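Review form for a predicted model. The reviewer records the input and the model, then writes brief findings.
Reviewer: anonymous (R2)
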Amino acid sequence: MPTSREELVALTRDPAAFLDSADDMLRRMAVSALTAEQAVAHIETLQAMIEDTSEPVRTAVAETLSLAGSQSIESLRHLERDNSETVREAVATAYGEVGDPTAITWLVEAAESDDNRQVREAAVAALGSIGDQSAVDPLLELIKSGPPQVRRRAIAAITVFDDPRIEPTIQRAALDRNPGVREAAEMVVGRQIQISEVRHQNPDTGNRKRES
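Model under review:
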C-alpha cells in the first residue's frame, strides 16, 4: 500500500514512532529522519535494526548510527560483515564521521580488498577523516599500489597528515600512468607550491597571525 500523506506528515513530526513500521520504506525514512538527540535516545532500537531484512533500512541505520558517536561502534562492527555493498559503504563513511581509530584495521582491509569500488573509496576517505597517524603507512601503500580510484582517493586523504614521506610520494604520483591519479596529485602539488610562494613573499604572515 502506498504511503499516505498523513503518514508522511506524522513521520516528519515524530520519526521514532515509525521505527517499528511494517512498511520498509517508512522504516527507512524514519531512521533517516532521526536527529542526533533522537538517535541517542533510541540507540537500542537502532542496534536491533542492524538485523533488518531490508537493505535500504540497514543502510539508513548505518548512516544514522554515526550520530550516536561511540555508542554506535559495536553495531557498526556487526555491519562490517553485511552482504550489501551499500551497507558496507555506509559503515565506512560512518566510521569516518565518528572518528574511531579502532576501525582503521577494517578500513584498510576494505580499501585494499573489498569487491565494491564505492566501499573501497569510502574506506579510504574515512582513513583521512579519522586522521589517526596509524593510517599513514597504509595510505602511502595504497597510493603506490591500489586501483586507480583508490590511489586518487588516497592522495586526497593523506594530505591531512604531516609526514616527510608524503610529499615525495605525491610527487611520484604526479607521474602516474592513470590521468585521474596524475590530476589528483598535481592539484596537491599545485596547492603546496602556492602556499610556499605566499610564505616566501610574506615571510611574516605566520607571525602576524600568531600575534593577532
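Findings: The longest helix spans residues 179-201.
Further findings: Residues 1-98 form a domain with the Leucine-rich Repeat Variant fold (CATH 1.25.10.10).
Recommendation: see findings above.
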